[in-house]
Amino acid sequence: MAKRVSEADKQREATDKALKQLGALVYDQINQGEFPWVMMQSRSIDNIQYDPQVRQYILGDRMVKRHSRNIKHIRPFTQLVWTAWFARELVRQRKTSTLREAYYSARGQRDIEYTDQQESDSIITDLEVSLNKAREDFGIFPEERSAIFGDITIEYTVPGYEGRRTNLTDHPDGIMVGPAVTSSEFIETTANKVIVVEKGAMFTRLVEEQAHKKFNAILIHTAGQAPRSTRSIIHRLSKDWGMPVYIFTDGDPWGVHIAQVICSGSANAAHLRGLTAPDAKWIGVWASDIIDYKLPTENLTEFDKKRLTELQDDPRYNEDPWKKQIELFIKIQKKAELEAFSRYGLTYIVDKYLPEKIGAIAPDS
Amino acid sequence: MAKRVSEADKQREATDKALKQLGALVYDQINQGEFPWVMMQSRSIDNIQYDPQVRQYILGDRMVKRHSRNIKHIRPFTQLVWTAWFARELVRQRKTSTLREAYYSARGQRDIEYTDQQESDSIITDLEVSLNKAREDFGIFPEERSAIFGDITIEYTVPGYEGRRTNLTDHPDGIMVGPAVTSSEFIETTANKVIVVEKGAMFTRLVEEQAHKKFNAILIHTAGQAPRSTRSIIHRLSKDWGMPVYIFTDGDPWGVHIAQVICSGSANAAHLRGLTAPDAKWIGVWASDIIDYKLPTENLTEFDKKRLTELQDDPRYNEDPWKKQIELFIKIQKKAELEAFSRYGLTYIVDKYLPEKIGAIAPDS
Question: Cβ contacts (< 8 Å) between B170 and chain A: which residues?
Fold first, then answer.
């Protein structure tokens, strides 16, 4: 396939511009003798709603104003301005950081006060909302845990590696998804689909059985709930490269929700776009798979049952397969892990289960 | 440096041979009209002792016999024989698996009974003890979470990648340590030391600041307690390649113990060799660093305090810096994370702290 237009530099410039505008706004307000303030969409629960058109949670129209004239707002306002400065430094110096480092940096020489990291994390989200950018755009990443493997050539954009191309089948243990992979350009690929699994063990199994060749697939390991950077990669492969995405998780309420968050995002990220893959398909382990494949199971715990009931109240679970499978989990009171297929031999999952499930959804693939 | 003699094939052959011998032993016993049995060192706590010569925990001389004539032993004996068969299949087919897959495989068509995975894990350890081999030799790996980065060229030995060489600076997010890296040959390196950190965020920081170049180091990220495969890599770099190893962990009892396990192993692995690096140095974050560097701290929890007292009862903590630092943690009642150095800016840890600490121990490096 042809090379796509480079996005990394464009995005960095746009982020830099947005941060500068925020600073300029505050300066202008002060110059005009005003107490500075910032407007942003409210993130309170009653302003978060599921949008069936966009197929993800979004923020409603209600706005809040952080006003330095208000004694209660001075603290978060100052924190926000500091965080914007910190973010700008990261963007300018082309460095990355973490939520935790941001918190400790604030406690440094500038003595910005935070009670705990949660307060700092929340201000970083405020900055995301104010600028309509993800914290990854500011270079603030979570600890990387997820991994990718498959025949896709990427081009790094991080300092010291600019323009360096690499193929993601180079390392049979997989490539970690950190700032470098996340900010890379996708150059070309022979893959025509994405297979997502929630566990490293299953990821290693798929690599070992050459599932990337058998299925012409890019393999992604989310390590539990997919970090945002991993979700943004799945989004790009789904949207920009038009690849169908198949998600395999443990057959329990937690696995179900891992799949759902990849498809439609989380309420926490209602202010962000570019993290969802609404056309992605959750195709296992279903409650009906537990029956059909006679899988070894464990009983649902009280905690599992409570979680299933919660999921039923979530509008995103009103459609099949979600609805039907959740009802079936509640009926059979059982759960099963992806590894449970090992009862039929280690390769069964690649030889039988995945082809059957993917084939049922996409007969021609 | 010159190429080392290949070890991977040799090891696989030795493991195959040991498994065959175990099978032959059982066959011979049956042929001679005996109820088959297996001897192994006892793993009960009173047979585990710290050996100051070997500088790790070892098993004592007490042996136990698993005898199929004993009704209570039939179950674990059968499980052990099945596990040996499963391990042999992995070795023959050059596949890898996980503890969890081994458990589910047992529950498959052969209907070997296990109450839970713990029982299966314990039998796998029995097999390790019986054969004096690590489960990684049988191809049974934990879920990979740790990572490596630095100028070292390795040669893969896993199927499909045999003879393929790669340099571990290829991917700026780091290379995951899974079965492939663990079983690779180390071909050549310009590095002359190893820096180990317990957290992905700090690992990413070190890569970004090019710590591998500044310190001529191979960087390793353990992701908390270092998995065995990561410990075996540290062992090889320390022992076979003569590299000093410097370990940086959070400044709390958990970080202290992560460092200690890398140095001298765990009681759980008292039956294994090749996983320790007794000459490795734990060089931070010390309690004295918290004072000297005026780090942001948190108070020790009751749980932290209890853990510190436990560590004081462990013979491995009788020497400095362990002894002195544990006493100081108890005295100051504070702990600090590696990220706490961000208070002095993101690069402080690479520009100041690491050079000072490494320099204090190895002035010429």
Answer: 166, 170-171
SS3 content of chain A, % helix, strand, coil (to 5): 45, 15, 35
| CB of A210 closer than 8 Å to CB of A245 | no
| Residue A98 contacts B where some CB pair is shorter than 8 Å | yes
ipTM: 0.81
Q: In Å, how far are B149, B183, B208, B235, B276 from B7, measured between CA atoms?
A: 22, 9, 33, 14, 18
Give contacts of A 329-348 with B, CB under 8 A.
337, 339-346
**Among B98, B109, B200, beta carbon nearest to A201:** B98
* Residue corresponding to tokens 């700032």: A179
Is the separation of the CB atoms in B194 and B235 below 8 Å?
A: no
Q: In B301-333, which positions are buried (b, 16+ CB within 10 angstroms) versus exposed (e)?
A: eeebeebbeebeebebbeeebbeebbebbbeee
The first and second tokens of residue A87, run together, are 């973010």
Q: Are A307 and A253 in contact (CB under 8 A)?
A: yes
Q: Which residue of the set A50, A103, A104, A293 is catalytic?
A: A104
Contact A101/B at CB under 8 A: yes
Q: Min CA distance, B56 vs chain A (Å)?
A: 29
Q: Where are the domains of chain A?
A: 8-141, 147-361
- Tell me the pTM: 0.85
**What SS3 class is residue B133?**
coil
Rounded to the nearest 10 degrees, what angle do helices A8-31 and A71-93 cross at? 140
Between CA B16 and CA B11 the distance in angstroms is 9
Q: Are A8-141 and A147-361 the same fold in CATH?
A: no
In whole angstroms, what is the distance from residue B237 CA to residue B191 CA? 10
CA distance B314 to chain A (A): 32
Cβ of B200 and A109 within 8 Å?
Answer: no
What is the token pair recorded at A112?
A: 């910005």
The residues near A56 (Cβ < 8 Å, ≥ 6 apart) are A50, A264, A265, A270, A273, A276, A278
Question: What length is written for chain A?
Answer: 365
For A163, which DSSP code? T
Please identify which residue in the block is written with the tokens 């297979």: A195
Model confidence pLDDT, tens digit, residues B41-86: 998 888 988 888 888 888 999 999 999 999 999 999 999 999 999 9
B104 catalytic? Reply is: yes
DSSP assignments along A78-121, one per residue: HHHHHHHHHHHHHHHHT--EEHHHHHHHHTSTT----SSHHHHH
pLDDT tens per residue, chain A (365 residues)? 444 446 778 888 999 999 999 999 999 999 999 999 999 999 888 898 888 888 888 899 999 999 999 999 999 999 999 999 999 999 998 888 888 888 888 877 567 888 888 999 999 999 999 998 888 889 888 766 789 999 999 999 888 898 999 999 988 888 889 889 988 999 999 999 999 999 888 898 899 899 999 999 999 999 889 988 899 999 999 999 999 999 999 999 999 999 999 999 888 888 888 889 999 999 999 999 999 999 989 999 999 999 999 999 988 899 999 999 999 999 999 999 998 898 888 889 999 999 999 988 776 65
In B, which residues are within 8 Å of A95 by CB distance?
A: 208, 346
Interval B152-162: pLDDT, tens: 999 998 888 98
- Could you please state the CATH topology (level 3) that the domain comprising A147-361 is classified under: Dna Topoisomerase Vi A Subunit; Chain: A, domain 2 (3.40.1360)
Which CA distances in Å does A57 have to A131, B160, B285? 18, 44, 42
For tokens 């202010």, name the residue: A271
Q: Please state, in angstroms and rounded to a whole number, the distance separating the CA atoms of residues B135 and B128.
A: 6
Alpha-carbon distance B50 to nearest alpha carbon in chain A (angstroms): 33
User: Is the CATH number of domain B8-141 1.10.10.10?
Assistant: yes
